[in-house]
């Protein structure tokens, strides 16, 4: 999934550049994006580059407010510098990875068998670079690490609440305690995928969605190239800090309107890509030119900076909210952490519901025996007939038993299945 998402964005950018390759600046951008898939690893980092002062000024100018009213400097410091880093590594050049090929228009593979040749990591970090949440996928195993106290502190709450929650958890929720203690936990993703495949086999499955007509795909691509070629402009700004600086811009409302007109006629021919395509183009897009600063190093894409303030209804001079996307073609290979605690499917269900049951929590706390607001005793055990009925509704036996052990009755689980 992360590979496909990243590739989709890059493929779109590359297609846009190719339409105006007669321009020198656009040629540089096109070639820079084209090099991204040449290596066996890549790293992307999306961060809020706005300072606390810029965030406060932007909030006042746009009327944005925090949970407790006006956005204060303390809340702004929480937002400033937050980042999401994604690293991808593979046993072959990324452009040869199936997910990249699928993102560029190949037939999607509906098999749930995981590609063990691709390794991915996500890291959400605070303004000091301290990881708050880490997730890695290596050899069909998922690894999760959460700095629960760091997250709680980030939201302005007392970190000691984490210890209080962990202390009150029952013995059979040791997995939740491990998560709250900041330990790495391991999930067998292939086992979960196999469970999903087995579960799919028990339900009446809808007929497969038709694959996109190659002629329609060609028509759509040509239409997008035409729109982007007419609306997007590139301006070479020279060099900045050793990198080539290129300004890419377009009239926002015109671009959105024309892209909508290009996609709408063929949206129904791409059921996977445009599942719920809107009936009309967004009306809140500003009628002005907006752009992004692109930076290239050694002919390769290095970073891009976008000022979110460009999209605000009223933009006062000096009001900015920059966000940055940086690329590292030499990102280190993603590795599995040592000494991770293995979680079963049942452990996972308990962890998910357990993490929702903090002090005074509403969602989930009433489902867990022994926690605040939870039932004093466990629910009646599920019968074989009930398990069979739940399986037909899409709830595997292991998951149903996990919910049941947390105090959920047959009717509770059945209601969740129907809502899902």
The overall pLDDT, averaged over residues, is 77
Strand runs, count: 14
Q: Hey, roughly how much beta strand do the residues contain?
A: 15-25%
Structural class comes to alpha+beta
**Helix content, binned percent:** 25-40%
Major β-sheet, in short?
12 strands, mixed
Helix/strand order: HHEHEEHEHEEEHHHEHHEEHEEEEHHHH
What value does the Rg take, in angstroms? Answer: 25 Å
Uncertain stretches:
1-23, 105-112, 203-209, 356-376
Sheet with most strands: strand arrangement: 9-10-11-12-13-1-4-5-6-7-8-14
Structural shape: globular
Describe the structure.
This protein is of the alpha+beta class and 420 residues long. The protein has helices spanning 2-18, 24-34, 52-62, 73-79, 98-103, 148-154, 160-168, 174-180, 189-202, 214-231, 252-263, 345-355, 384-392, 397-405, 410-419; strands spanning 41-48, 65-66, 69-70, 83-90, 118-125, 131-138, 141-146, 185-188, 233-240, 243-251, 289-297, 300-307, 322-328, 341-343. The strands form two sheets. It has a twelve-stranded mixed beta sheet. Strands 2-3 form a two-stranded antiparallel ribbon. Strand 9 and strand 10 form a beta hairpin. Helix 1 (2-18) packs antiparallel against helix 2 (24-34), helix 8 (174-180) crosses helix 12 and helix 12 (345-355) packs across helix 14 (397-405). The longest helix is centred in the middle third of the chain and has 18 residues, at 214-231. The chain starts with a helix and ends with a helix.
């Amino acid at each position: 999934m992360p590979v496909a998402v990243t590739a989709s964005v890059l493929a779109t950018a590359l297609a846009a550049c190719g339409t105006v390759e007669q321009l020198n600046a656009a040629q540089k951008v096109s070639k820079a994006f084209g090099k991204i898939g040449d290596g066996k690893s890549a790293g992307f980092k999306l961060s809020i580059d706005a300072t606390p002062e810029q965030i406060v000024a932007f909030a006042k100018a746009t009327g944005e407010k925090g949970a407790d009213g006006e956005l204060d400097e303390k809340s702004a410091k929480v937002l400033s510098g937050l980042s999401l880093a994604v690293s991808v590594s593979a046993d072959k050049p990324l452009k040869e990875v199936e997910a990249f090929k699928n993102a560029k228009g190949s037939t999607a593979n509906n098999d749930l068998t995981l590609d063990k040749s691709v390794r991915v990591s996500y890291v959400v970090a605070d303004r000091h670079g301290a990881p708050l949440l880490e997730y890695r996928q290596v050899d069909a195993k998922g690894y999760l690490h959460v700095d629960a106290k760091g997250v709680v502190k980030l939201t302005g709450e007392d970190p000691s609440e984490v210890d209080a929650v962990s202390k009150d958890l029952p013995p059979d929720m040791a997995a939740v305690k491990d998560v709250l203690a900041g330990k790495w936990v391991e999930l067998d993703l292939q086992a979960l995928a196999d469970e999903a495949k087995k579960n799919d086999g028990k339900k009446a499955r809808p007929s497969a969605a038709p694959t996109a007509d190659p002629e329609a795909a060609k028509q759509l691509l040509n239409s997008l190239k035409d729109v982007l070629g007419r609306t997007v402009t590139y301006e070479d700004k020279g060099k900045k800090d050793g990198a080539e600086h290129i300004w890419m811009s377009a009239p926002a409302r015109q671009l959105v309107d024309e892209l909508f007109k290009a996609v709408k006629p063929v949206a129904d021919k791409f059921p996977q890509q445009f599942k719920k395509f809107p009936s009309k183009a967004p009306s809140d897009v500003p009628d002005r030119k907006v752009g992004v600063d692109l930076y290239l190093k050694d002919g390769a894409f290095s970073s891009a900076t976008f000022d979110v303030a460009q999209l605000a209804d009223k933009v006062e001079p000096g009001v900015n909210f920059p966000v940055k996307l940086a690329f590292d073609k030499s990102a280190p290979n993603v590795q599995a952490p040592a000494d991770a605690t293995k979680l079963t499917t049942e452990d996972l269900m308990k962890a998910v519901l357990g993490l929702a049951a903090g002090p005074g929590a509403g969602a989930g706390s009433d489902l867990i025996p022994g926690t605040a607001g939870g039932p004093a005793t466990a629910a009646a055990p599920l019968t074989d007939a009930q398990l069979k009925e739940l399986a037909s509704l899409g709830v595997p036996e292991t998951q149903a038993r996990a919910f049941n052990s947390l105090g959920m009755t047959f009717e509770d689980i059945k209601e969740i299945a129907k809502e899902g």
